[in-house]
TrEMBL record:
Record-annotated membrane-spanning stretches: 12-32, 67-93, 105-128, 156-180, 201-227, 266-287
Assembly notes: The complex is composed of two ATP-binding proteins (UgpC), two transmembrane proteins (UgpA and UgpE) and a solute-binding protein (UgpB).
Organism: Microvirga brassicacearum
Keyword Cell membrane in annotation: yes
UniProt-recorded name of the protein: sn-glycerol-3-phosphate transport system permease protein UgpA
Keywords assigned: Cell inner membrane, Cell membrane, Membrane, Transmembrane, Transmembrane helix, Transport
Domain of life: Bacteria
Taxonomic lineage of the native organism: Bacteria, Pseudomonadati, Pseudomonadota, Alphaproteobacteria, Hyphomicrobiales
Length: 293
């Protein structure tokens, strides 16, 4: 007979979930509601006076060519980082799942980079690829490449993509490895006995069984590239050169904190929040259909 836990005190379940609800309300819903309200206000740089202007901030925002350029930059940056980090992590996890010598040490070393803060990760990469001081920039220049991410927008974007990808690979690797270890080895062995090669086994058996993990990581990586890469962008390029690596989240900071346009910055944050919610909803609506639980 199935046993069920019964609470004699009817308030106890609500008390148990109250801390999580309080954290969500205080640190998410309250700031989000404040951003929505501030997007309808015209405020001075110090926030001492404000005037209700309705949708004026949104109207002015969509008249800026720089905002559309930031949208394109965000689309390119987010797509490249998500695809590269997921692909590299899946490749590393599939290799680490094999019986390797010093396998535990290798797995630990692959997970460690996730503990590095985004800003620190950005500083590490700019130290390696700085056009004059970088340890890896010198061999690149020695090969005849005029490497300069400080002035060349393509080089700056490539450096950002590499650093953001490196930071996220460890997180994806951890979940892919856990998903691979949860797959019954008997299923893979049966396919091998039937004559399926390693590549066919991966695409017909292993990868479909990893679809729940892959779907979860796609959602997480979209949120990561839209929000958590701010520290990397600020440390590596600061949105430059000439704003060519300014993403939507960095433009919120640049216009609000540096430019003093609090109302316009709030409007940008609201639009960014809507974009992320819409992308997540689309993934749950269409991508989840192909997930095999």
């Amino acid at each position: 007979m199935e046993k069920r836990a019964l609470f004699s005190n009817k308030l106890l379940p609500y008390l148990l979930i109250f801390p999580q609800l309080a954290i969500t309300l205080i640190f998410f819903y309250w700031p989000a509601s404040q951003a929505v309200w501030q997007s309808f206000l015209l405020e001075d740089a110090f926030g001492l006076s404000s005037e209700f202007v309705g949708f004026e901030n949104y109207r002015l925002l969509f008249q800026q060519p720089e905002y559309y350029r930031a949208m394109v930059t965000t689309a390119v940056f987010s797509s490249a980082v998500a695809i590269l980090s997921l692909s590299c992590a899946l490749l590393l996890a599939s290799q680490a799942d094999k019986n390797l010598k010093a396998g535990h040490a290798i797995k630990t070393l692959l997970i460690w980079p996730y503990a590095v803060a985004p800003a620190i990760a950005g500083v590490l990469w700019i130290f390696m690829f700085h056009p004059t001081l970088g340890t890896l920039a010198r061999p690149i220049k020695g090969a005849g490449v005029d490497w300069n991410p400080m002035l060349n927008a393509n080089h700056a974007m490539l450096l950002l993509i590499l650093s953001a990808t490196w930071k996220q690979i460890s997180y994806n690797f951890l979940f892919f490895l856990a998903g691979l270890q949860a797959i019954p080895k008997s299923v893979i062995e049966a396919a091998a006995i039937d004559g399926s090669g390693p590549i066919r086994r991966f695409w017909t058996i292993i990868f479909p069984l990893l679809s729940p993990t892959t779907f979860f990581l796609i959602v997480v990586n979209i949120v990561y590239v839209f929000f958590d890469t701010f520290g990397i962008i600020d440390a590596v390029t600061g949105g430059g050169p000439a704003g060519r690596t300014t993403t939507l989240v960095y433009k919120v900071y640049a216009d609000g904190r540096l430019g003093g346009d609090l109302g316009g910055s709030a409007a940008q944050s609201v639009i960014l929040m809507i974009i992320v919610i819409a992308l997540t909803a689309v993934q749950f609506r269409f991508v989840e259909r192909k997930v095999q639980y």
